């Protein structure tokens, strides 16, 4: 029930389901223009995921089962009617109980009989059994509906992780291409200088530049893998056709400022809104009601009943003597009051203890949730603060590294700079820019985790 491990570090998101997906690359031929790419926003992807998810449908079926059980429990307060109708051969019986020309040991079967028997039982007082079952069933519906909301919140967080992972992978690929492009130009220029035997041209510079370029490109395949897996997983969850082009509305990551409630208020909100808390609250009421229902079996169950019979056979004389009853040719109705009591020598007591233990188990789960959920909120807020500080630090750092790289390229082009300076500038810029992308990813994911931890994820998407 708890989801304490929801906050991820800025690594490539590789979900188990994503491992079975592939990204279909459409290569347009000269005779066929490329198909237009569908563009999806984060809200579009979440909406599609919640609409088609089999996990959501599975939870909804559980809610339907709970509602059916509630209907059963509600119907327990109404009368239960049993009707039995039979037909069969009838032996002739004339006269009355005192005198008859027919004999039981020498029957004459020359007709048929019809018999309809109806029993109606109306519970009157059950010492809380019916009330307990109805209350438990009603709370069970709330538990199952909260499970639907919990699963929806899980999927929303999952889609957000994939969405931001793809954007970060796209940014990383762009950064790698940018750095490798600059180094490629420097390599080409150095090669020309060596061939032209320009004074100061050194093969060591060429080796260093190629080494720096190799260091940059070694991360490209990993970034591409993250991009492809995130894309495939998003298409899987959103139910998109994998043969069709697919694009996101955003080109890269952004860290847009967003107001977040204080951590203390967020913890209080989480204890109120989280579907896990709704489950344990309803579960406590349900198990308490089941204890009451089991305890009612220690007492008699009072009821009213109607028993009526209609039987008819054309070859038998109907008896008018009140002491004589003919099961094949008679009719009567009787209304009674009664009670039923089962003495089972310990079985009921055992069922009561089992119900009480279930109630205590749910109570322990509630206490655990009340401790763990606020910690989850506090953790998400702490990671948001860390991401904000990292953003500030890396923002200034990568911009200055960019200026260093531009200056190093200019100096190298003029022949007054060394290849080592150019390579170090490119390496530093790549590292700081990558750290900045990761900080933006962590920032956005921390906001998503705060919404999840406070129980606002589903409500925010419903707006």
UniProtKB/TrEMBL annotation:
Pfam annotation, one family: OEP
GO molecular function: efflux transmembrane transporter activity; porin activity
Record's GO cellular component terms: cell outer membrane; efflux pump complex
Highest taxon of source: Bacteria
Subcellular location: Cell outer membrane
The keyword ATP-binding appears for this protein: no
Keywords: Cell outer membrane, Membrane, Transmembrane, Transmembrane beta strand, Transport
Endoplasmic reticulum in keyword set: no
InterPro entries according to UniProt: OMP_efflux, TolC-like
Record-linked PANTHER family: MEMBRANE EFFLUX PROTEIN, PUTATIVE-RELATED (PTHR30026:SF13), OUTER MEMBRANE PROTEIN TOLC (PTHR30026)
Family: Belongs to the outer membrane factor (OMF) (TC 1.B.17) family.
Protein's name in the database: Transporter
Lineage of origin: Bacteria, Candidatus Methylomirabilota, Candidatus Methylomirabilia, Candidatus Methylomirabilales, Candidatus Methylomirabilaceae
């Amino acid at each position: 029930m708890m989801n304490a491990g929801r906050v991820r570090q800025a690594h490539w998101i590789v979900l188990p389901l994503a491992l079975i997906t592939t990204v279909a690359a459409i290569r347009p031929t000269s005779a066929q223009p490329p198909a237009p790419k569908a563009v999806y926003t984060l809200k579009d992807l979440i909406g599609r995921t919640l609409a088609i998810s089999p996990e959501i449908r599975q939870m909804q079926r559980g809610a339907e089962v709970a509602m059916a059980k509630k209907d059963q429990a509600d119907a327990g307060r109404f009368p239960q009617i049993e009707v039995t109708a039979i037909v069969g051969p009838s032996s002739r019986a004339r006269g009355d109980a005192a005198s008859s020309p027919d004999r039981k040991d020498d029957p004459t079967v020359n007709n048929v009989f019809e018999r309809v028997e109806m029993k109606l039982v109306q519970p009157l007082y059950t010492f809380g059994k019916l009330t307990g079952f109805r209350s438990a069933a009603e709370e069970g519906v709330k538990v199952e509906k909260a499970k639907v909301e919990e699963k929806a919140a899980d999927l929303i967080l999952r889609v957000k992780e994939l969405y931001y992972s793809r954007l970060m992978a796209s940014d990383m690929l762009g950064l790698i291409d940018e750095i490798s492009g600059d180094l490629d130009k420097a390599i080409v220029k150095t090669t020309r200088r060596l061939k032209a035997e320009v004074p100061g041209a050194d093969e060591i510079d060429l080796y260093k530049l190629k080494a720096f370029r190799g260091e940059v490109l070694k991360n490209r395949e990993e970034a591409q893998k993250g991009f492809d897996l995130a894309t495939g997983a998003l298409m899987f969850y959103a139910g998109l056709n994998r043969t069709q082009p697919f694009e996101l509305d955003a080109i890269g990551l952004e860290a847009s400022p967003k107001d977040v409630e204080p951590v203390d208020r967020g913890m209080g909100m989480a204890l109120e809104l989280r579907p896990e808390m709704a489950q344990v609250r309803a579960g406590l009421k349900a198990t308490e009601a089941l204890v009451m229902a089991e305890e009612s079996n220690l007492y008699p169950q009072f009821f009213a009943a109607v028993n009526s019979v209609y039987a008819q056979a054309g070859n038998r004389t109907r008896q008018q003597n009140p002491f004589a009853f003919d099961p094949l040719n008679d009719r009567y109705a009787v209304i009674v009051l009664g009670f039923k009591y089962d003495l089972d020598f310990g079985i009921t007591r055992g069922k009561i203890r089992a119900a009480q233990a279930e109630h205590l188990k749910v109570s322990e789960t509630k206490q655990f949730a009340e401790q763990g959920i606020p910690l989850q909120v506090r953790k998400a807020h702490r990671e948001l603060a860390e991401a904000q500080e990292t953003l500030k630090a890396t923002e200034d750092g990568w911009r200055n590294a960019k200026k260093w790289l531009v200056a190093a390229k200019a100096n190298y082009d003029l022949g007054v700079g060394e290849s080592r300076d150019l390579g170090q500038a490119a390496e530093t810029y790549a590292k700081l820019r990558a750290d900045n992308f990761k900080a933006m990813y962590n920032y956005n994911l921390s906001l998503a985790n705060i919404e999840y931890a406070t129980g606002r994820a589903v409500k925010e998407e419903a707006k």
